[in-house]
What we know:
Blueprint: E1 11-14, H1 24-51, H2 58-86, E2 91-93, H3 94-127, H4 132-135, H5 138-164, E3 173-174, H6 181-187, H7 193-226, H8 231-259, H9 268-292, H10 295-309
Parallel strand pairs: 1-3
Antiparallel strand pairs: 1-2
Amino acid sequence: MERINETVVREFVFLGFSSLARLQLLLFAVFLLLYLFTLGTNAIIISTIVLDRALHTPMYFFLSVLSCSETCYTFVIVPKMLVDLLAQRKTISFLGCAIQMFTFLFLGCSHSFLLAAMGYDRYVAICNPLRYTVLMGRGVCVGLVAAACACGFTVAQVITSLVFHLPFHSSNQLHHFFCDISPVLKLASHHSRSSQMTIFMLCALVLVIPLLLILVSYIHIILAILQFPSTLGRYKAFSTCASHLIIVTVHYGCASFIYLRPKSDYSSSQDALISVSYTILTPLFNPMIYSLRNKEFKSALRRVVGRTILPPQF
């Protein structure tokens, strides 16, 4: 039997910004500023929620978890991307790529289910306000976050195992700036149709199931709001949901485009551009959308800053 001499891929080379070689220093400066600003805004949000007792409610508990998740989410991708923008050879080991994909998928999938939990929180607050403190007790909130993390962990583990058990013998040039599913799969020497379908179905379920739960929640919310007697009451009720709806639209819009479109429509340059939006811009704007539109949060932030700068005199 003839032995085929094939070299096993031990590292991947990122080519996501190779066409923008002359702009890499500028991109480094812009992305670094955005990353530091993202870390700063999320740290402010988490600190304010922790330090101000008025924000110790389920809605702000979920917001603090969302901010933590997005801080970790950017930490998995952006620092490596910043280093690569300054490096001559932009490589990542095979194991490092697998770890990056797993962590990215774990946080991203958990994010989807966390948004569904936040939608349920808004449903209970508007449709069952008298039982809100009972239905959304601390144990329930922690349980919902734990369930979101468990779902994210399971899906990430299965997808990462399926991808990195494939043979990689040919090219190691990854036309992306991090180890996402589609660009890595494109480098596999061969893969079965069953593994492809399993990965696609898991991605679809992670997006479709939470989105359906959110839609059901908002159908009930809208029906309840329409029954409010005053226009002001309807406006206040809807305003508490607007920030969540904006984040849901951005998250599911980007994720659906990346993971649910036909493989024939795959474009590495298009994917890289969309990926910049949801790995750098979305984690920056999501907390800001919640905080800047929220008078209660801004009041709490002023109280925390006031106590920090002017501590009480005894």
